[in-house]
Amino acid sequence: MSSRPQAHDYLETLACSACDREHDPRQIHTVCRECGHSLLARYDLRRVARAITPDEVTRRSRGIWRFRELLPPLAAGGGPDLGAGDTPLLPLRRLGERLGMPHLWLKDEGANPTGTFKARGAAVGVAAAAALGVRELAIPTAGNAGSAWAAYSAAAGLPIHVVMPVDTPPPIKAECVAYGADVTEVDGLISDAARIVNERAARSGWFDASTMREPFRVEGKKTMGLEIAEAFDWKPPDAVLYPTGGGVGLIGIWKAMRELDEMGWLDGPPPRLIAVQAAGCASIVDAWEAGAATAERVADAHTVAPGLRVPLPFAHALVLRAIRETGGTAVAVSDDELMAAMSELAESEGVFACPEGAALLPALRRLLDRGDLTREETVVLLNTGNALKYTDLMHATGGSAA
Amino acid sequence: MSSRPQAHDYLETLACSACDREHDPRQIHTVCRECGHSLLARYDLRRVARAITPDEVTRRSRGIWRFRELLPPLAAGGGPDLGAGDTPLLPLRRLGERLGMPHLWLKDEGANPTGTFKARGAAVGVAAAAALGVRELAIPTAGNAGSAWAAYSAAAGLPIHVVMPVDTPPPIKAECVAYGADVTEVDGLISDAARIVNERAARSGWFDASTMREPFRVEGKKTMGLEIAEAFDWKPPDAVLYPTGGGVGLIGIWKAMRELDEMGWLDGPPPRLIAVQAAGCASIVDAWEAGAATAERVADAHTVAPGLRVPLPFAHALVLRAIRETGGTAVAVSDDELMAAMSELAESEGVFACPEGAALLPALRRLLDRGDLTREETVVLLNTGNALKYTDLMHATGGSAA
After folding, report:
1. Which of A131, A255, B212, B328 sits between 20 and 30 A of A283, alpha carbons compared?
2. Is the minimum CB–CB distance between A202 and chain B shorter than 8 Å?
3. Which region, left, alpha or beta, applies to residue B205 given φ > 0 means left and ψ of -120 to 50 means alpha?
């Protein structure tokens, strides 16, 4: 059985990531009411460090709520628990040999409910929304966030409106419909879906759970960083490669490492965070290469990987800050490269990674070539989901008739 | 990181499930060389009980190899580990309220690698095959076993031949092809695929890893039973409902409970095991209702659920014995009922269960109606996989354009 969460209260405030203005965490918020930037949860980390030990957290039964003192408090009885978190960290033995890297790992987020890392954000986001009295949710999505939020909303008994591009992979739409979500398709990108949600939310009183416009989703994603640190016995790996669409997970891992560091749990510096994007939609890579602290919207965003088809992450400044503060970097790969990597990962390691996760493999080769990583370093590839939602992309051939 | 297996040796013999003839577990075997029935691994359970404690097993890091003393020994370095096992056990709160059942649970095997319970059998089966020096594998499949074995074979670097019905869901075929398996499609059922594998294996020296014709797959499936007992603090639930195609998992759970009982770990009787089948393919239900100890092949097997489309499980006598010995029963549901249950589970609990797993919900209602279960009992529904492979069945409708 999963670890049942308990109500607790180490959450002090929601502080604006840009102007630092504080907001009461016991009230419903989206972005900073002063400047419109993302809010980040701030905990009393000294009290948390006195309340729990690393060993105690490790001994608790599986799932993200093992880290409950570093998550927002819940309504009595807890939010819906579909089993998110504690995904496997797999040694990539055969690829490691091929690349001369003895310490290469893949964290496989495909093991989450709904098959992707989005379940972590949804688990915490929906639980927090329910605890705060939200009655109706709305979310724009490139796909996977939509089905994850639809699943948790169903389990919580909350209605949800999901707005997605018309070219979202059909299995994802089928999931959302099965969960009973109200699905709207738009002839455009996730940015167009976001605009529609924003307008309708204002009109209809829906709670807009868009990426980084809602403060608790990133707390759920943070658990990826907490688990990575724990898996390496609190001595963080040298680098984490992360496929960057909205960038919430990358910000989450950065936040996790900062909090653990402040609690005195880390034995060594946080990992260098490396954002990987598709060449046709590389706002963060472009900004990084230009040495800019903020990014610009990509005019003609295109890539086969739906999760990377984000013209400009809402929290682009935070993504760039996380890369900068950890000594990371950013790199783009072509669609051909990432599609070929899906096959290479499956054939050599038995991991059926989504196109976004597969993009990390050609990125890794590029980083080794240009000296941003060395072969002896401990490196984690964060595969964000299972490729089962994307088999339409793969033009399966190769079977023969008996 | 997953718990790394170590070589060990509590496995004493492979005993025939029909004639009890013993076979050396350090050699490659399929079925009993005397009578052709399934072999079952037999361990020195007294030594195992002296070597480990329940608490020790619970403290080990996640995955099926936590139970390594009750699994076949591995080659040095261990078999490939893709993270199978330790799937979530979810309370079905909303359905439980609807049915008046306060202790209703679902074990969600969709969290396994390749999205189904088949990963458990493949993890142990491929590891054992590799340790015994098998060089080439072959497997007939209704779908999910094929992709699970293809994934683990890829990770182990072993070639595999997968033979599947031509109407296997396309995402499953795409998985197998991505993993580099040699895929053959047959215009028939899994029984026709089995015949082809059997013939070619004899001719080409492939190892035939068909259901219950290979002794270690059931050992992997056994971990479901071990985890269920552990999750309830070694006091087993009253009943487990299991969707029965080949029946390996049901036999595995029965075997797990017997072994735990013999080790003195169980606080209470094993759960009643309840086989659930589709009305169009119900060999076990028919035999059970006739009071027979063996089952007959269904002539015109048909159901939308690929995993239930098995005209006669090879180990039908063992399935019936497991039901009988635990005081269980067998029940069939219609395709309409199981398809409706997919939506009901998704909408009410946020669980996107495969058609086979969804079949358990109408079966549960029938069992309550006819008094085979009471509402106060602790009941586990074993959902064997994620519905993402089956969205073609669901005719997703319901989205609207913006």
Report:
1. A255
2. no
3. left
